[in-house]
């Protein structure tokens, strides 16, 4: 007889996610259900608004991937109106998106995900001399003396002795699934604290190019970033040098802290290969070396992989009405007033809310019916995983040299077969590896920007098609972005200068989606199946797998449930 275990809310993520799993008598997960438990409806509030303003509304979908929705939005309007942006604007947008990647990936690794692998309390037992020796053997990062680690240990001790664990409260400390020696746990906690400091630096790139963070400024047609190297009132030489320096420091942090820690931790967990899942991967692609409309020039190449067939990468077309479609058979929405659906491409898509779930307090969701505020996006009717693992595997399957080298080197270091990449740990490693790529692209694009400016090109905005009188009566466009958590698309329909319909299909919508019209499960759900839980009261393995996707439910369901405000509640039902 299967038992239903509920984790709600999943913490150390953005937004409200509930996971229900059925486990057999041996504690192995037989079935899983992912539910977004809040709904927001931002797609509805942009209707009838000026398409040039929409980015500023939809950017508020999320404060984590804080620029991605603005970027997807302006790209959708530019696509609809056939606006080409100046080279400087493209480079600045790339650098800003790169900054989001690095910020999100480092924060995810150290602050949202690490404690699924790292036991803070064990760090108290560490010998700081040995931590220092390990640190120096994997990196020449300067903060690595025995005294430094002793200091960190004393800090943790004080927190623990105070009885108020603060940021370290509610962990499953002492759980048998933790495998790191105390010394490596201490190293990871030290870098948890260092990464907290570091993450506030990288976002300064947004404040320089976009005026602020979170939610920097954009403009349809380019960037609202006046550049004049001799002016005090524009982005000038000193500020450009500041961005350049932040990129160099980020490069160092990635290579000397993030990656060595990632591989050191992974080496203790390499036998824990659960959490793979669908084996279907989707990447829209981004970071073009030229124009965004030229897919051939994307540094994250576009493509789809089905059933783990890495010999064939399938073409993806976001404008084809048969490719990306959202289904609502198990989501609290209706299409044309009906509960079931045939699936809608986002042009002509619909956001009509209808909650048909159990009323709180309830023990479990009715997972045979509708059970989530997340829709089920499907590519050619297949559920897909998107995100770092998908990007790295699509690049690998296309035999892009830098992807192959990074993955093969890592597999060699870990003595892992390629298939092992298709796991929670593989996903976490892929996130680190793509950070190596992204920070280099930031460096390259910053160099290109500086060279362009030096050549006298200071243009960041093209106003040719700014006035609505220049627009066709009807137009539709799609803007895509590779966001930290995966492929993001915004689809807009413009009529008479206004936004007629707007649909966002977001990375976490893909990954956290519930079942669809064919009862096919989503990526989170698939990734949990078959995983053994060592302790059903403390389902650390569920957190480990779900966190490996870096969930963002604010994005996925784009209102908050004002009736019930539940705190952490994990029970066996
Ligand atoms: Ni709210 Fe987001 C990213 C987008 S969501 S974090 O990355 O787009 O999945
Ligand atoms: Mg949507």
Automatic annotation (TrEMBL):
<dbReference type="InterPro" id="IPR029014">
    <property type="entry name" value="NiFe-Hase_large"/>
</dbReference>
<feature type="binding site">
    <location>
        <position position="65"/>
    </location>
    <ligand>
        <name>Ni(2+)</name>
    </ligand>
</feature>
<dbReference type="InterPro" id="IPR001501">
    <property type="entry name" value="Ni-dep_hyd_lsu"/>
</dbReference>
<keyword id="KW-0560">Oxidoreductase</keyword>
<feature type="binding site">
    <location>
        <position position="555"/>
    </location>
    <ligand>
        <name>Fe cation</name>
    </ligand>
</feature>
<comment type="similarity">
    <text>Belongs to the [NiFe]/[NiFeSe] hydrogenase large subunit family.</text>
</comment>
<protein>
    <submittedName>
        <fullName>Hydrogenase</fullName>
    </submittedName>
</protein>
<dbReference type="GO" id="GO:0008901">
    <property type="term" value="F:ferredoxin hydrogenase activity"/>
</dbReference>
<feature type="binding site">
    <location>
        <position position="65"/>
    </location>
    <ligand>
        <name>Fe cation</name>
    </ligand>
</feature>
<feature type="binding site">
    <location>
        <position position="62"/>
    </location>
    <ligand>
        <name>Mg(2+)</name>
    </ligand>
</feature>
<keyword id="KW-0479">Metal-binding</keyword>
<dbReference type="GO" id="GO:0016151">
    <property type="term" value="F:nickel cation binding"/>
</dbReference>
<keyword id="KW-0460">Magnesium</keyword>
<comment type="subunit">
    <text>Heterodimer of a large and a small subunit.</text>
</comment>
<dbReference type="Pfam" id="PF00374">
    <property type="entry name" value="NiFeSe_Hases"/>
</dbReference>
<feature type="binding site">
    <location>
        <position position="558"/>
    </location>
    <ligand>
        <name>Mg(2+)</name>
    </ligand>
</feature>
<feature type="binding site">
    <location>
        <position position="43"/>
    </location>
    <ligand>
        <name>Mg(2+)</name>
    </ligand>
</feature>
<keyword id="KW-0408">Iron</keyword>
<feature type="binding site">
    <location>
        <position position="552"/>
    </location>
    <ligand>
        <name>Mg(2+)</name>
    </ligand>
</feature>
<keyword id="KW-0533">Nickel</keyword>
<dbReference type="GO" id="GO:0030313">
    <property type="term" value="C:cell envelope"/>
</dbReference>
<dbReference type="InterPro" id="IPR050867">
    <property type="entry name" value="NiFe/NiFeSe_hydrgnase_LSU"/>
</dbReference>
<dbReference type="InterPro" id="IPR018194">
    <property type="entry name" value="Ni-dep_hyd_lsu_Ni_BS"/>
</dbReference>
């Amino acid at each position: 007889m299967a038992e239903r275990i509920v984790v709600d809310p999943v913490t150390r993520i953005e937004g409200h996610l509930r996971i229900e799993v059925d486990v057999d008598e041996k504690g192995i997960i037989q079935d899983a259900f992912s539910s977004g438990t809040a709904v927001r409806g931002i797609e509805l509030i942009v209707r009838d608004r000026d398409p040039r303003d929409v980015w500023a509304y939809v950017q508020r979908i999320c404060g984590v991937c804080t620029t991605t929705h603005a970027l997807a939005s302006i790209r959708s309007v530019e696509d609809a109106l056939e606006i080409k942006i100046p080279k400087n604007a493209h480079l600045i947008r790339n650098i800003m998106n790169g900054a989001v990647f690095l910020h999100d990936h480092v924060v995810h690794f150290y602050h949202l995900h690490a404690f699924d692998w790292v036991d803070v309390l064990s760090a108290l037992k560490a010998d700081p001399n040995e931590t220092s020796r390990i640190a120096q053997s994997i990196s020449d990062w300067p903060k690595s003396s025995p005294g430094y680690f002793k200091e960190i240990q004393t800090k943790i001790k004080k927190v623990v002795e105070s009885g108020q664990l603060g940021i370290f409260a509610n962990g499953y400390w002492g759980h048998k699934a933790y495998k790191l020696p105390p010394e490596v746990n201490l190293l990871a906690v030290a870098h948890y604290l260092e990464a907290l400091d570091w993450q506030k630096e990288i976002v300064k790139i947004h404040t320089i190019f976009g005026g602020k963070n979170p939610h920097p400024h954009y403009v349809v047609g380019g960037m609202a970033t006046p550049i004049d190297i001799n002016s005090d009132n524009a982005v000038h030489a000193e500020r450009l040098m500041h961005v350049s320096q932040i990129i160099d420091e980020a490069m160092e942090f990635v290579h000397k802290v993030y990656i060595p820690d990632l591989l050191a931790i992974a080496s203790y967990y390499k036998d824990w290969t659960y959490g793979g899942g669908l084996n279907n991967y989707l990447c829209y692609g981004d970071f073009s070396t030229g124009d965004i409309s030229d897919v051939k020039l994307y540094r994250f190449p576009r493509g789809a992989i089905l059933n783990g067939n890495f010999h064939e990468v399938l073409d993806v077309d976001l404008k084809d009405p048969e490719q990306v479609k959202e289904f609502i058979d198990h989501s609290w929405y209706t299409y044309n007033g009906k509960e079931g659906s045939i699936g809608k491409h986002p042009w002509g898509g619909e956001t009509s809310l209808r909650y048909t779930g159990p009323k709180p307090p309830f023990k479990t969701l009715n997972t045979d019916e509708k059970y989530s505020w997340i829709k089920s996006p499907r590519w050619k009717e297949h559920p897909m995983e998107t995100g770092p693992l998908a990007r790295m595997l699509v690049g690998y399957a296309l035999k892009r040299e830098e992807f192959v080298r990074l993955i093969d080197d890592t597999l060699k270091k870990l003595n892992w077969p390629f298939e092992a990449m298709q796991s929670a740990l593989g996903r976490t490693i892929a996130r680190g590896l793509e950070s190596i790529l992204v920070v280099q692209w930031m460096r390259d694009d910053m160099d290109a920007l500086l060279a362009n400016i030096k050549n006298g090109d200071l243009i960041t905005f093209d106003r040719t098609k700014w006035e609505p009188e220049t627009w066709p009566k009807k137009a539709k466009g799609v803007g895509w972005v590779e966001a930290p958590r995966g492929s993001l698309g915004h689809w807009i329909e413009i009529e008479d200068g206004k936004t007629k319909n707007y649909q966002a299909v977001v990375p976490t919508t893909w990954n956290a989606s519930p079942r669809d019209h064919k009862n096919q499960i989503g990526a989170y759900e698939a990734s949990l199946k078959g995983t053994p839980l060592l302790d059903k009261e403390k389902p650390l393995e569920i957190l480990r797998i779900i966190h490996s996707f870096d969930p963002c439910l604010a994005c996925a369901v784009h209102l908050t449930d004002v009736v019930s405000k539940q705190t952490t509640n994990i029970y066996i039902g």
